[in-house]
């Protein structure tokens, strides 16, 4: 009986197995598309369908003019430091770029990309009067914390809640993932020295690109564990 599995799916499965087996390691370039299509005996269109499957699974990334690469090892979002997403990730050696989607009414909306791949959708509500003081800054190259410091704000502490979730339709287009993909949702409130709120942040973080890691020490990090439901009901 003829094999009813489409050719592109067989190719995607084979490449996925090779990636998971370490034939192609995180960060490695895959062979050129013409080489792959010839090796599998299919057209470029069929090969590109297979690569789309791998992209949807988060196994590969494609960079215009450079080629196709196995998705780099997971970046870690650390919760033991009072710094921005970008500062944490760049310290780990990741290439991070920022797209400013909008800024108005004190609300700054940004898209964070890791190695050119959308990874975090972040909305920051900035308190007055600092929203007006930072509205002309270039947030493609400057962190919000740095801009606030330049505007005279003193950041004292932050309270953050991180929960797992599923990607909603409203963010799926920005992050180029299908709705329902696994995510983390970070809600962070940043306070000044007089305990006034400086920023309310909400970040949608792709769960297949980042992991959360904590470094524990007696004077450096305090974690409280709880549930999102009332267990007494």
Keywords:
two-stranded antiparallel sheet; 10 strands; six-stranded antiparallel beta sheet; Arc Repressor Mutant, subunit A; disordered C terminus; 7 helices; 233 residues
Protein architecture, described:
The protein is an alpha+beta fold and 233 residues long. The protein has 2 domains: 7-70, Arc Repressor Mutant, subunit A (Orthogonal Bundle), CATH 1.10.10.10; 75-213, Chorismate lyase-like (Chorismate lyase, 3-Layer(aba) Sandwich), CATH 3.40.1410. Helices cover 27% and strands 33% of the residues. The chain has 7 helices and 10 strands. The chain has helices at residues 7-21, 33-40, 44-56, 85-91, 130-134, 144-150, 169-175; strands at residues 60-63, 67-70, 75-78, 96-104, 107-114, 117-126, 155-166, 182-192, 197-206, 210-213. It has a 6-stranded antiparallel beta sheet with strand order 4-5-6-9-8-7. A two-stranded antiparallel sheet has the order 1-2. The longest helix has 15 residues, at 7-21. It is elongated and about 70 Å long. The relative contact order is 0.12. The model is unreliable at 221-233 (pLDDT under 50).
Question: What's a concise summary of this model?
Answer:
The protein is α+β, with helices and mostly antiparallel strands and 233 residues long.
